[in-house]
Amino acid sequence: MGNLVTKLAAAPQAAHAGQPGVHPARAVTGMRPHIEKITGRLLDSVAGTDRFDLVDALAYPLPITVIAELLGLPIEDGPRFRLWGEVLGIAAATTLSPGETADVVAPAVREMNEYLVAHVRRRRRQPTGDVLSRVATAQVDGAPIADGEAVGIIALTLLAGHATTVALIGNAALCFEQSPGTAAAVRADRSLVPAVIEEILRIRSPLCGLTRVTTKDTEIGGHAIPAGALVTTWIGAAGRDPARFPDPGVFDIHRSTAGHIVFGHGVHFCIGAHLARLEADVALNALFDRYQDIRVDADGPVEVDNPVQIVSPKRLPLRVSVRSAGGPGLTRRRLTQCRPCSCGARRLHGMSQRRTSPGRPRTKPAEERRADLLDAAERVFVEKGIDAARLDEITDRADVAIGTLYLHFRSKNDLLAAVRARFNDRLVERQNAVVRAMPADDWIGRVDAWLSDAVRAYVEHAELHDVLYDHTPINAKTTMQVSSENAHMEAFRQLITERPDAPAGAPDPAMAANLIYSAWYGATHALLHHEAVDIDRLANELIADITDLAHRYLRIEDGS
């Protein structure tokens, strides 16, 4: 980023405005139909529910999908982009210790730079016509731009190219919530949408301020500022200047917002402003088309980002009511009439066609889609290994769009954690069900059934168990093992403490459970890594040994 900022300061016309091939605003022309398609698919993923999180469902996945496609970056890497943005935002908004910078920020920056450099060099060898190719092959004063400059431009475009829209869509919902009646007025008269977007930008500017270095001596408000001085321009305050905007704290969709500086000024005017406005326009129209009423869910707390970083909600639960069938259907009509575009979204078009094929339901409840994603992830993780598994493979198996995955999981690691948790929960529930099926007065039989089925369950799922456990980083293995064991231990301890009549000298139930469980866990783990051909026979021997150990330690003699 430093190289980019230096270049802009030294030669703004050449670096910012003098490269027509590098100007993303020109690539925006004609993108509305495609953005509407993406928006439609994302809202389809929450159809059938009256509650969803606006950021996870639409405000984040829409702009990150668009900017990734526009640049020419793989959309399945969206979770990476989100992580980089969050880490760099935290670094910019807070004071971190050297240790925190080394442990958190430096690895993210290094990963981002290596990732983007690889893509820049690949496009130099094989340009494809996307924005990334144009940046990679651009020249300034007849000389190719360096890798660092290209990475700075792409990184800035990628991160800033979605963050403003996330904030704009989220802030729109908050503004409507705080100004009753405004949403209904805009829903009835869509010609107001562009003015609404500008008023949202003014009253809730995504960026509070920007810090810059003066290039020459100047004077502002009677104060002399020398060249080379560090100056912070408070954009948010400018948008609430009563000398320019009467009653600046009022959300007034009919006011003139001409002159607000949210997107900058002059040669440094934001090159993504056109795209952000277009995405917000499409998103708001789609929401008004689909829903008669949109309210912030009082039962789900709103979470906001650090305003020093960005003025934006990061969790925004909504309650919605769907429009009646006879209401306007602008979004549906546009989706029906849209022709396949040429902006690199063939895979997304194909996925949409598969989901709406004859005989297949168009939407599913959110929990079913989440379960489908977990099922698909299990299969792909086992077949490809976790490191090689790609998110687009998982979404293809689940027959959902990539945005649906982002609705439920923030990253690949988040998805992996959910697969692990479900795996452990299913094993515990299975074993508890086996115990419940035994006669209540047959305590010995219930202990034997638990131990036997616990071994069987792990043997049957050995492949998935190995993939999930072996991939876990060493510092997280203990946490995962303890989490898994706690669930099993609690079930087994409860079973042991239900013993009706303990013989004289029998050990403390908790101690007995700990000892027997430890022996069972160690033996089962060894079994999973055994190379024996007859694994079933080995499992039977293990069950017999562990059951015998349990009987002897619990002093169960002659069935008593």
Secondary structure elements and their pairing?
Elements: H1 2-10, H2 12-17, H3 32-44, E1 51-53, H4 54-59, H5 61-71, H6 78-93, H7 98-125, H8 131-136, E2 139-140, E3 143-144, H9 147-178, H10 182-188, H11 193-203, E4 210-213, E5 218-220, E6 223-225, E7 230-233, H12 235-238, H13 273-290, E8 291-296, E9 303-304, E10 313-315, E11 317-322, H14 330-337, H15 346-355, H16 366-384, H17 391-398, H18 402-408, H19 412-437, H20 443-460, H21 462-471, H22 474-497, H23 509-528, H24 535-553
Antiparallel strand pairs: 1-11, 2-3, 4-7, 5-6, 8-11, 9-10
Helix pairs in contact: 1-9, 3-5, 3-13, 3-14, 5-9, 6-7, 7-9, 9-11, 9-13, 16-17, 16-19, 19-20, 19-22, 20-23, 20-24, 22-23, 23-24
